[in-house]
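User: Hi! Is it possible to get a structure for several chains at once, not just one? Here's what I have:
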Amino acid sequence: MSAELSRSTESGVSEVDLELARARAGLLRFCEPPSAALAMFVEQVGAVQAWRGILARRAPRAVLAATAARTQDVSAGDAVLRADADLATAAAVGARLTGPGDHEWPAAAFEAFEGALARGVRGACAPVALYVRGRSLAGLPRKGVTIVGSRASSAYGQRVAGEMAHTLVSGGLTVISGAAFGIDTAAHRGALHAERSGEPPTVAVLACGIDRAYPEANRALLDAIGSTGAVVSEYPPGTAPARHRFLVRNRVIAALGAGTVVVEAGRRSGTLSTAAAADQLGRLVMAVPGPVTSAMSVGCHLLLADRFAQLVTGPTDVLAALGRTPEADNQPAFPGTDPRHPTDGLDADSARVYDALPARETTTAADVVAESGLVGPRVLSALAILELHGLAERDGPRWRRVGKRPLAPGGNPG
Amino acid sequence: MSAELSRSTESGVSEVDLELARARAGLLRFCEPPSAALAMFVEQVGAVQAWRGILARRAPRAVLAATAARTQDVSAGDAVLRADADLATAAAVGARLTGPGDHEWPAAAFEAFEGALARGVRGACAPVALYVRGRSLAGLPRKGVTIVGSRASSAYGQRVAGEMAHTLVSGGLTVISGAAFGIDTAAHRGALHAERSGEPPTVAVLACGIDRAYPEANRALLDAIGSTGAVVSEYPPGTAPARHRFLVRNRVIAALGAGTVVVEAGRRSGTLSTAAAADQLGRLVMAVPGPVTSAMSVGCHLLLADRFAQLVTGPTDVLAALGRTPEADNQPAFPGTDPRHPTDGLDADSARVYDALPARETTTAADVVAESGLVGPRVLSALAILELHGLAERDGPRWRRVGKRPLAPGGNPG
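Assistant: Yes, the chains can be modeled jointly so their relative placement is included. Here is the combined structure:
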């Protein structure tokens, strides 16, 4: 076996690099993800040793069990040849293999799996490696937002997904999705149409081999994503898409974003599994409402009704829910918003009640009535409006002002 | 004054009744609501003594202050004549005056104001009396649901409001609204078109005198409501609608329903004041989502995003949110729902995971994976789906089954 591992390589790739790449390719080839046992073994001994151990049948029993189905009739030599072939197939479509320790590996994105695994969630483990076509994943999940939804989407959902992706990417973020028809496609397209920033506009995570286009009709889209963003897969080249792989893949989609936005989902949409995975990983789950008359919004409304997801109506809400402001990331302002003047355009009552609220202490609504000279229900209404805008805060029966009202209400800069 | 108070009346009305009616009419005529001072005074001494006290200028200073503007140039005799004239005007349009102590008075609806007042919410007080055209309000708020929304509503909102009202009324409830254009009108109409049950289908609360139709174009609608349901007002006959009266009136609309549903509302819709009033009264606030592209749903989305309101997509959600089932009120089943079989139609994975959950204890997702034979993410997805349907409950990292799965999944009765 050492003969194979040390044979010479194409120019420019060190033997150490090749050995690591081959080990990763072999691990992906011979173990269907997710395998927490394999992930732990790799974390303990590294990919190269793990791979050698499996080939030599010297590995934890759970790892041998997880790889048995694919390795039992394969000699170590053939296994290595197969790993090399996978690397070659990947290279032929412009893909490389990346894993833990590489600069481009989104280590921060996958840290969350450790907690989920510790909580007893079997299958909640990071990929051992990823085939990547395109750019580095290093900025994720901090710079990423996952946008997913049904294949059977409405024109409404596609529009919302496309515009959301477009605006988020224009603001310097990366949109992660699954390249499926419908919402995924709209999100990827919206991202690709945005003006280029420093980050990859969009990342597509496949449930099949990196050399395959699924759905086939999205081949050109995937090529475009691979050229300006990134297409990734934890499956060895040639792997066919299968139902269980979509569900397994969804955990990677959820992990790569700081939060997951469900734009449309039917009552039993597979999209809900991405939402569940995001939740398990401690990622914020968001959902876009839609007409209650639309079957494509039923899943979103279930998520919202049970307060499993935060309601978002657009990119500004997504950023706010994630605790981001365009400023915080030093990005250009988002169209249609002016975060510098949150009280701009308040109605007269609300402005009057805002002014009646003390800046440093709490007060009762009755005192606000006295101070503002407005009758009780108008004050209550105004307080509710201020609260909705985050300009007043309730503390039991008492209220306090939040933030600072600018001097020129209603004014726009310039 | 005792001469006026004891003069004989039309046939069938006792002097005691007339004295009470006249006192109530006078109180409504000479004090613009809401006046917590007057409400408290009336609660302490009764309407008749309160009215006599005000006429004799022997009342708490706050009460005299609240009534000063309208009583200062009026003799006691003229005041009584004016009250009698109001009763006559009301009677001419088929309206009567009701108040605390009457069988038809919705005492339970107005109890909530006491708590709000105790919390320092000035203006949060029950009406001293109400003019009523039509049926008794005795079943409210238990049998009532308030449905409100913007005048500038969309066809979508009108459809949702109309269908919701229709279904709720078909199930034996009463829909309360404000007779404004848009959502209010759609709710009233939907209620009127429902099959008649024991309860009044709908109640309209006016911000003007009971003898006026506002908006004028809704005169026929108000007549229809007054004939099978009820039209009510706390304003003396002839009172013109005014902006502040709509806001004051909204507290009555909120009080008469067990919960308030906002179907559509713009960003600064007056409808939000009804939601705020409902919240102050401890009533459940519900909101219907809509397209994020619709300005008419912005207010609803604000309420939902801040978790100020519970998301509802239709009448079944409203009943569930209010803790009602059609059975609980011995009402006919609602169209399109079958509450007897909550797990009907579960997908195969979810059914399998449901069966894998122990009935009496909690378990980890990992154990469910082992038990169900499904991979982790499928189990997670199924658990999320079960949780959304209220069939599984999370307890930290552990899960438990909720309810009992019927033997024949997917089956409909008969």
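Chain B has three domains: 2-92, 130-329, 348-401. Chain B touches chain A through 67 residues (CB under 8 Å).

User: Great, thank you!
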